[in-house]
Amino acid sequence: xxxxxxxxxxxxxxxxxxxxxxxxxxxxxxxxxxxxxxxxxxxxxxxxxxxxxxxxxxxxxxxxxxxxxxxxxxxxxxxxxxxxxxxxxxxxxxxxxxxxxxxxxxxxxxxxxxxxxxxxxxxxxxxxxxxxxxxxxxxxxxxxxxxxxxxxxxxxxxxxxxxxxxxxxxxxxxxxxxxxxxxxxxxxxxxxxxxxxxxxxxxxxxxxxxxxxxxxxxxxxxxxxxxxxxxxxxx
Amino acid sequence: xxxxxxxxxxxxxxxxxxxxxxxxxxxxxxxxxxxxxxxxxxxxxxxxxxxxxxxxxxxxxxxxxxxxxxxxxxxxxxxxxxxxxxxxxxxxxxxxxxxxxxxxxxxxxxxxxxxxxxxxxxxxxxxxxxxxxxxxxxxxxxxxxxxxxxxxxxxxxxxxxxxxxxxxxxxxxxxxxxxxxxxxxxxxxxxxxxxxxxxxxxxxxxxxxxxxxxxxxxxxxxxxxxxxxxxxxxx
DNA sequence: GACAACGTCTCTACAATGTAGACAGTACGC
DNA sequence: GCGTACTGTCTACATTGTAGAGACGTTGTC
Lengths: 235, 235
Known about the structure:
The structure is a homodimer.
Chain A: H1 20-34, H2 41-47, H3 62-74, H4 86-103, H5 108-113, H6 125-140, H7 145-169, H8 177-187, H9 194-198, H10 200-204, H11 208-226
Helix pairs in contact in A: 1-3, 3-6, 4-7, 4-11, 6-7, 7-11
The structure holds a DNA duplex.
C-alpha cells in the first residue's frame, strides 16, 4: 500500500506540514540554542528539512522572521489586567519577564532593538499586547489614561534597564562564570580601573531577582505617591 | 614641481592619511546619516576613498569596528568623579547621556546590544570608563564599594531603560511625527487595543527630559534612603 | 646613494547571505 | 475529471565579510 507521505527511508523523517507557528517555534529554538547569527534562512530551512525559500510563505523576509520570534517570546508572558492589586501585578509581571529573558537571553537584543526601528503602530501586535494590558491594569486601578501611560513608561523603562543590566553581567557558562569574569577584569589596566577591578568578587554574585525587587519597591512607592489613583479600583 | 601627493585632478580629493580615529569618525558619521546597515566595509572604504581592505589595518573585523563606534560615542560623555554632590552629578550625566542618545539614535542599538555578547572584561575600555568613573564618584561620596555598585546598577539600568523607551516612541521625522504615529495607531484593531488607540494624542508629546528627571528624583531619593553614605564625602 | 625592511594600501578571489522569479507538485472546489 | 489555489522547490544573482598575495612608498642603515 502507498504510504500517505513518501519517505526515502522508513522511519527517518515524517516531514511535518509547515505552518507559521512551526516555523517560528523552530526559529526560536535555533536562536536559543545557537544564537541570533545562526538564524539564517538556509539554516532554518535545513532545520525544517525544507528549501529555504519555502520560509517566505510564512515570513515576508528575515526581519519579519525576527519580529515573529520576538512576538513568540512575548506571548509567553501572562498578564492579568483585572488584578485588583496593581502593584502586586506589576511585580509579578516584572519577575516573569526577567525569567523569560533569562530563558531566552539571545532574543533579548531583538526585544530591545527591533522597536527602535519600527514606529509603534507598525509593530507586530503581540509586541504591543503587554503595553495595552498594563495600561488596562492601571486604568482599571483608577489612574487616568495619561497617568497610566506615565507609570507604564517609568515601570517598563526600569524593567528593561534592569534586564539589560543583569544580562550584561550574566555570562552563559555558569561554571566558568567567575573564572572568565576574573580573567576579564584581570586584563584591565590597574591604573585606570581600580574600583572596577576591586569589585571582582562582588560582581560575581549578582542577586538579580533581589535587586529587581528592591528597585521595584522604590519605583512603585514613588510612583504611587506622585500619582494617586483618582477613584476606587473596579471603576 | 611634483606635488607631495599625486592627484588625478587638481582640486579633487586630498586623500588624507588614514588613522583609527579618522576611520571611526567617518564610520560614526555614516551611521548617524544613514543607519547601521549602511556601515559596510565597502561603503566605508568608498567614503574614505580607499580600498575596503585597508580598513582592516584599523579594526580587526566588522564587529571591532562597531565596538569602535560605540566607544567613540561614549567618549563624548563627560563625567566628573570628584563632584562633591553625587546626586547632582548623576542627574547631569543622565541628561547628557540622553542628549547623546538623541544625537546618535542609530548607535543606541550598539550601545545596548554589544555588551550583551561581550564579557565585561573584554569590552573596549572606553565603554567601561563610565562605569569606573561613576563608581569612583559614589565611593568618593562615601558609599562602600559594594553599595556603590548597587546604586550604579539601579541608576544605569533605569537610565538605559528610559533612553530605550523614549527612542522607541521617537520617530525620526519630527514633522510627520504625529501623522505617522496616528497612522500607525489607526491600524490597530479597535477591539484589542482600546486604551492604546485612545492615547494617541498623549503619546504624541512625550516630554522625555521631564519624565527622566521625575524618575531620577524617585530613584535617587529612594536609593539615598536605603543606602546612606557611611562617612563624610571627600573621604 | 644603494638597499633592505617595514608599514600602508590595493587587487583578486571566495564562501555565505537574502531573496527575486519561474516552476512543480498537491489538494480541493465544482 | 478539471481548473484553481496553495505549498514547496530550483536556479540565479547581487551583496556581504574577509583571507592572502602583492604593490607602493617611506625610512633607517651602511
